[in-house]
Write a structure and sequence with these properties.
- By secondary structure, the chain is mainly beta.
- It has no helices and 11 strands.
- The strands form 2 sheets. Strands 2, 4, 5, 6, 9, 10 and 11 form a 7-stranded mixed beta sheet that branches. A 4-stranded antiparallel beta sheet has the order 1-3-8-7, with no helix packed on it.
- A hairpin with a 6-residue loop joins β4 and β5 (about 45-50).
- The model has no long low-confidence stretch (mean pLDDT about 95).
Length: about 120
C-alpha cells in the first residue's frame, strides 16, 4: 500500500511562490507521480507529472513555464515548485500515483493524497 501525504499549501499573494511537497511511503521503480488540483466549483484537473525512473515530465498548458515538478530521492518526495502564482491557481492540490491509463485523467490513478489548500489573493 502506497501512502501519499501533501504539505506546503497556504495563503499567498499574486506573483509569490510556494513549494508543495508530497511524501511517498513506498516508491516503486516504474511509478508515475502527478499533481492535480481542484479549483472551486471545477472538476479535478491534471497539473504536472513525472516518471520516477526516467524523470520525464508533463505539464498542463496553464502552468507550463511557472510550475516545476521534481523529485527528491533522499527524502522520497515529489515536489511542485510554483512560481508567479495567480488567483486562478487557487485550489486544493492533490498528489497522485500509479495511473493505469492516461496520465491526464483522474480515474486511472490508484493512490491519492488528502490534498493541501493553496489560496492566491489578488
Amino acid at each position: 500500500q502506497v501512502q501519499l501525504t501533501e504539505s506546503g499549501g497556504g495563503l499567498v499573494q499574486t506573483g509569490d511562490s510556494l513549494r508543495l511537497e508530497c511524501e511517498v511511503s513506498k516508491v516503486r521503480f516504474k511509478d508515475y507521480m502527478a499533481w492535480f488540483r481542484q479549483r472551486p466549483g471545477k472538476a479535478r484537473e491534471f497539473v504536472a507529472g513525472m516518471s520516477w525512473e526516467g524523470g520525464r515530465t508533463h505539464y498542463s498548458d496553464s502552468v507550463k513555464g511557472r510550475f516545476t515538478i521534481l523529485k527528491d530521492n533522499a527524502k522520497t518526495t515529489v515536489n511542485l515548485q510554483m512560481n508567479n502564482l495567480k488567483p486562478e491557481d487557487t485550489a486544493v492540490y492533490y498528489c497522485a500515483a500509479n495511473p493505469s491509463d492516461s496520465i491526464y485523467r483522474t480515474s486511472g490513478y490508484e493512490y491519492w493524497g488528502q490534498g493541501t489548500q493553496v489560496a492566491v489573493s489578488s
